[in-house]
Write a structure and sequence with these properties.
Distance between the termini: 27 Å
Order of helices and strands: HHHHHHHH
Number of strands: 0
Radius of gyration: 19 Å
Helix content: over 70%
Shape: elongated
Structural class: mainly alpha
């Protein structure tokens, strides 16, 4: 008789950064919630504070947007230099952000700077959905490096032996991909219909709401799956 699947362990972990297939799992004990909070502070909260601070100082909308939106780009470059390697997800993000920044610099249009945020989220969403055709979907790839070794070993076994587990990974990947696509469309609409100064804050709020919603959906789905397989969900 096969051991009962371990799908409840780690399934409620929030994936943060899509790792490349060649990325080595870092199991140094970093809590995924800590990683998520750190990313939110550095990539969302800090650029917002810089934008509105520059606006209070009288800096025009276009320049304030360009300077504040450069912070995530600087962090990616710093991370690549510090790690002395560039993973595929980092290279993907850098190329999109650099291309969008160059377009923004050439046009001088603040609404285009706002709309460029949708480029990255749309492409990330499409990339997540495209992993459904790969050997492992996004949720599986992104969460594995965050798991303890024992749980990761159970996930590998469940992927090979439990069809419900594989289906769960694909369903959650679709949900995350669609969430990013919704965010991208909403950002374009806001960029061209709302006052420029209100869009950065509203965009951050939208992303926060979507992430909370998708994380809660992931947790609820994990609990239902665990119940179907007769295993208690862990919190």
């Amino acid at each position: 008789m096969k051991p009962a699947p371990q799908v409840h362990e780690g399934l409620e972990t929030e994936p943060v950064t899509p790792p490349g297939d060649d990325e080595q799992p870092e199991r140094a004990g970093r809590n995924p919630r800590t990683v998520l909070i750190e990313a939110a502070a550095l990539d969302v909260a800090l650029p917002l504070l810089l934008f509105y601070g520059l606006r209070l100082m009288g800096v025009n909308q276009w320049l304030a947007l360009v300077l504040s939106s450069a912070l995530p780009l600087v962090r990616l470059v710093y991370r690549a230099i510090k790690d002395r390697r560039v993973e595929r997800p980092t290279l993907f993000s850098l190329s999109i952000m650099l291309s969008a920044t160059l377009v923004s610099l050439l046009t001088g249009d603040p609404r285009l700077v706002l709309a460029r945020e949708s480029y990255l989220t749309a492409l990330v969403g499409l990339w997540m959905l495209s992993t459904l055709l790969a050997s492992r979907p996004f949720i599986y790839q992104a969460t594995m490096p965050l798991l303890p070794e024992a749980t990761a070993a159970a996930w590998r076994k469940d992927w090979d032996e439990v069809p419900e587990f594989r289906r769960a990974m694909r369903v959650l990947t679709v949900a995350w991909g669609l969430a990013f696509m919704i965010d991208a469309v909403a950002r374009v609409v806001m960029a061209y219909t709302l006052p420029v100064d209100s869009v950065p804050l509203l965009g951050a709020g939208l992303l926060t709401v979507l992430l909370i919603a998708i994380v809660q959906f992931s947790k609820a789905y994990a609990k239902r799956l665990s119940a179907r397989l007769g295993r208690p969900a862990e919190h």
